[in-house]
Amino acid sequence: MTIRVILVDDHPVVRAGLRSVIDAPDHVEVIGEAGSGEEALAAVDELTPDVVLCDLRLGAGIDGIEVTKRLNARPTKPAVLILTTFDNDAEIVAALNAGAAGYLLKDINPEDISTAIEKASRGETYLPPEISSKVVAAMRNPGPKLTRRERDVVKLLATGASNAQIAQELFVTEATVKSHLVNVFTKLGVDSRSRAIRVAEDRGLV
């Protein structure tokens, strides 16, 4: 039986390279591509693949974790494999919590990509040894918790509030808000407001 795959990456060159690797085995076929999370959801609706190979960060719009979460909420769902350059512990755990069947780094051997696709199509999970060790470590040591005020800041971030609006709501200065954000970013291992919101929510910190 042929395994039907959709590639999701915001870089066409990356998709072309992956297609050449994945189409090599006779039993695996790339049936579609998408350059954004929204395009990925539409492509799955149209093509009904067995496996979606999805980048973690997809530029503007929803990211790979949100794509995974939305696809896993459907009655009939493909397996989702995250393929990325980022090996941040929090993002790995967040992807798996969202329902990803595997988390792969882009320097992985082509043969291992094929193995991951085959396992995912059978309903199994595939994690390379270095990722498995990170998952175990993250489970044993969930990391620092956010303070009550830091959680307040993240909750307001999730509403789309600006630093000035957060400061007004919490009766603090904008400098204090920026200080809280620096602490939140450091604790969660993220580099943007959107990632801070996502990781905090997925880890149940807010």
Strand order of the largest sheet: 2-1-3-4-5
Overall 3D shape: elongated
Largest sheet: 5 strands, parallel
Number of strands: 5
**H/E series:** EHEHEHEHEHHHHHH
Distance between the termini: 44 Å
Low-confidence stretches: none
Mean pLDDT: 89
Q: Can you describe this structure?
A:
It contains ten helices and five strands. The chain has 206 residues and is of the alpha/beta class. The chain has a five-stranded parallel sheet with strand order 2-1-3-4-5, with helices on both faces. Strand 1, helix 1 and strand 2 form a beta-alpha-beta unit. Helix 8 crosses helix 9. It is elongated, with a radius of gyration of 18 Å. The mean pLDDT is 89. This is Response regulator transcription factor. Keywords: DNA-binding, Phosphoprotein, Transcription, Transcription regulation. It holds the Pfam family GerE.
Topology diagram in text:
Layout lengths: L2 E6 L3 H11 L5 E7 L2 H11 L3 E4 L9 H9 L6 E6 L4 H9 L4 E4 L4 H12 L7 H12 L7 H11 L4 H8 L3 H15 L4 H10 L4
Parallel strand pairs: 1-2, 1-3, 3-4, 4-5
Keywords: DNA-binding, Phosphoprotein, Transcription, Transcription regulation
InterPro entries: CheY-like_superfamily, NreC/VraR/RcsB-like_REC, Sig_transdc_resp-reg_C-effctor, Sig_transdc_resp-reg_receiver, Tscrpt_reg_LuxR_C, WalR-like
Protein name: Response regulator transcription factor
